[in-house]
Amino acid sequence: MVVVREDESALVAALRRGDERAFMQLVDAYAPSMRRVALTFVRTPAVADEVVQETWLGVLGGIQRFEGRASLKTWIFRILTNVAKTRALREARSTPFSSFASEAEGDEPAVEPERFLNPDHPGGWTSFPEPWAELEAREMRGVVEQAIERLPPAQRLVISLRDVEGFSADEVCNVLELSETNQRVLLHRARSKVRAALEEYMAS
Amino acid sequence: MTEELTCRELVELVTDYLEGALPPGDAARFERHLAICPGCTTYVEQIRETVRQTGRLREDDLEPAARDALLAQFRNWKDLAP
Q1: pLDDT tens for residues B39-64?
Q2: Contact call for B15 and A137, based on CB within 8 A
Q3: Is residue B14 less than 8 Å (CB to CB) from chain A?
Q4: Which pTM value belongs to this model?
Q5: What would the DSSP string read from start to end of chain A?
Q6: Quick check: A18 and B56 CB within 8 A?
Q7: pLDDT value for A98
Q8: Is B57 in Cβ contact with A191 (below 8 Å)?
Q9: Which of B40, B50, B71 has the CB atom closest to A195's CB atom?
């Protein structure tokens, strides 16, 4: 279910009035995504549920002051990422969420340079990648899930929001306060790694 | 004369290309390379397949218990609101 921008001011007004149906409409639209996104920050589903609940409290608490400059969706998910980040730090995970942008720095080839040592064509594939066989959906899903879990935090978050949850590039930049370029670099690195994981699985 | 892309360069541009972020000249070079390179064509298809598979990770039903908990939370908030 998609909550459209034009419906938003009506929805916000209804929420302010304490309209239960409006609230549950929002919940149905976003809570599953929120739970998945929370899980990219915290360890257990139970804690993720707490993060989601705390987020909704923040939404209800802030709805009177919500000015509609950002969309309701990006506002909700920004609250979520802040709540989740705080919670993750409190749970003392080994990787602190200091700066998402820093993960976009430096050099990280999408494919190892050794794959491009074709003697006849400089920079060309040494040998072409093998086209993939048909795999059972559940198998592929497992490989993809695992690969995403192993990504560094900002890459995991960007690919989750973009490719799992279907957020637009703009929305992700808004929620995570990233530049367009950084968002794209993070997405590029994430997708490259997931592809590599699938390739490795196919070859085994 | 513009230099044509190498495979090594192309794989770094895939995301920009799929996002529509490549300037027209670079997008043209990208496509020209694909037209003559089965390896890179396979690679780009693999990235597309990766995105498709990643999109399948959603299960969109909120568990009834979780939904009820949020509804209860809302009613609580409503009762406490001034």
Answers
A1: 999 999 999 999 999 998 886 666 77
A2: no
A3: yes
A4: 0.87
A5: ----HHHHHHHHHHHHTT-HHHHHHHHHHHHHHHHHHHHTTSS-HHHHHHHHHHHHHHHHHHTTT--SSS-HHHHHHHHHHHHHHHHHHHTT-SS----TGGGG-S---SS-GGGG--SSSTTS-SSPPPPPPP--HHHHHHHHHHHHHTS-HHHHHHHIIIIIT---HHHHHHHHT--HHHHHHHHHHHHHHHHHHHHHHHH-
A6: no
A7: 61
A8: no
A9: B50
Query: Per-residue pLDDT tens for A116-153?
Result: 999 999 999 999 999 998 888 788 889 999 999 999 98
Residue B19 burial (10 A CB sphere; 0-12, 13-18, 19+): middle
Q: Are A178 and A136 in contact (CB under 8 A)?
A: no
pLDDT lower than 50: segments of chain A: 1
CB–CB of A199 and B70 under 8 A? no
Q: How far is CA A31 from CA A36, B61, B72, in A?
A: 9, 9, 15
pLDDT (tens digit, 9 = 90+) per residue, A56-69? 999 999 999 998 88
What span, in angstroms and rounded, lies between the C-alpha atoms of A63 and A80?
14
pLDDT value for A27: 92
Which ipTM score applies to this complex?
0.87
DSSP class of residue B40 equals H
